[in-house]
Amino acid sequence: MPDTRSGLQAARDAWHYRGQQRPPFAQVPGPGQESVWNYPRPPTYRSDDRLITIHAGESRIATTESALRALETGSPPICHVGCKAIDSLPARSRAGAISPPLSPS
């Protein structure tokens, strides 16, 4: 397998926006707003105690007030929820088959 670290490092070195400055096309966030251009690179992780509810269609599949937000320059925040947040309901695949319920740990 070829060593790709030098190419990866070159790509990282070419990235100009790491949260220290905003690109010219970035809009300034308003009061109470965040900007993805203010997030750091490499990413940071922050706990989030807001109520987060995830739905698939009409079904609620997860609820938590203890998520983890991943924040990285130029990327939308990603909320990670723990296994305990997932409801143990059967999930339907695209083909319509029912899979076994999830077991939160």
Question: How would you characterize the overall build of this protein?
Answer:
With 105 residues, this protein is mostly beta strands. The protein has a domain at 35-88. It contains one helix and five strands. A three-stranded antiparallel beta sheet has the order 1-4-5, with no helix packed on it. A hairpin with a 6-residue loop joins strand 4 and strand 5 (78-80). It is extended and about 45 Å long.
Sequence of strands across the biggest β-sheet: 1-4-5
Q: Strand fraction band?
A: 15-25%
Low-confidence stretches: none
Helix vs. strand class? mainly beta
Question: Briefly, what is this?
Answer:
The protein is mostly beta strands and 105 residues long.
Topology, pairings included?
Blueprint: H1 5-14, E1 44-48, E2 52-56, E3 59-64, E4 67-71, E5 78-80
Antiparallel strand pairs: 1-4, 2-3, 4-5
Keywords, please?
about 100 residues; 3-stranded antiparallel beta sheet; 1 helix; 5 strands
